[in-house]
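User: Reviewer 2 asked us to show a designed sequence for the structure in our supplementary figure. I'm pasting the structure tokens here. Could you produce the per-position amino acids so we can include them in the response letter?
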């Protein structure tokens, strides 16, 4: 079981997916920049090659390393002992790799069988189970600081692929309620990075709600809109975190 007490930091909340860097990945390496630590967990975030951002989370149970590109594509790596999992998203395609097994779901043409194979691969992973325990605990905090928001977005993706159809919508509703109430009223122009991030997230949440309204849980089109939402919010997250130097700023 992963989680202990999560202490909040006063870091700037953030806000946007990715191919992995062409180099060996560290098993447990915490970047020196923008580090948040507690007795149970260490979060870290830093800029990387080709304008990517890397978020690393290390605890006694799980090591997460997530790379986010400017276009919202992500590459997620989970390590727990000898169990390693990689999940990439790009152009409405999710690729799950565990050991020698790779499953791929193209959401524009996916069948339930493709998604079932992804779920089957994830079900066998102890790293995925440990990560879901971690993200459940972070979700309970409703925190939107930079590192934790990145963990929550990754958790929503993993939960969706793992068979939880409501995971992304729950996060979307929470962010829409939080950011739409805190934004400027009327036609006042938003110019600061945090305001632009919130406006982008609210717009994406509204689009997701309208797109999914009336769709049954059996309609595979819903997967396209869910992955689009994740990509849009990851891109907004990246734009704020990378462009505003939020990764090294304390609010």
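Assistant: Here is a per-position design you can include in the supplement:
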């Amino acid at each position: 079981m992963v989680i202990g007490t999560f202490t909040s930091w006063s870091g700037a909340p953030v806000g946007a997916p990715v191919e992995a860097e062409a180099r060996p990945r560290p098993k447990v390496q915490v970047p020196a920049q923008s580090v948040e630590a507690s007795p149970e967990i260490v979060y870290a975030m830093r800029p990387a090659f080709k304008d990517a951002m890397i978020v690393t989370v290390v605890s006694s149970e799980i090591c997460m390393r997530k790379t986010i590109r400017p276009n919202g594509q992500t590459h997620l790596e989970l390590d727990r002992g000898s169990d390693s999992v990689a999940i990439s998203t790009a152009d409405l395609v999710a690729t799950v790799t565990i050991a020698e097994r790779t499953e791929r779901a193209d959401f524009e043409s996916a069948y339930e069988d493709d998604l079932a194979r992804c779920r089957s691969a994830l079900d066998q992973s102890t790293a995925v189970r440990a990560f879901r325990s971690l993200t459940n605990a972070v979700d309970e905090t409703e925190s939107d600081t930079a590192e934790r928001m990145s963990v929550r977005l990754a958790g929503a993706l993993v939960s969706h692929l793992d068979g939880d159809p409501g995971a992304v919508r729950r996060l979307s509703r929470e962010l829409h309620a939080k950011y739409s109430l805190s934004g400027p009223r009327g036609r006042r122009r938003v110019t600061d990075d945090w305001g632009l991030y919130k406006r982008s997230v609210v717009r994406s949440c509204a689009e997701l709600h309208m797109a999914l309204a009336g769709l049954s849980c059996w309609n595979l089109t819903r997967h396209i809109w869910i992955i689009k939402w994740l990509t849009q919010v990851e891109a907004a997250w990246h734009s704020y975190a990378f462009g505003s130097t939020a990764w090294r700023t304390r609010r």
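For the response letter, you might also mention the following. Strands lie at 35-37, 41-47, 53-59, 63-68, 74-80, 83-90, 93-98, 101-106. Helices lie at 112-123, 126-141, 146-161, 167-182, 193-212, 221-243.
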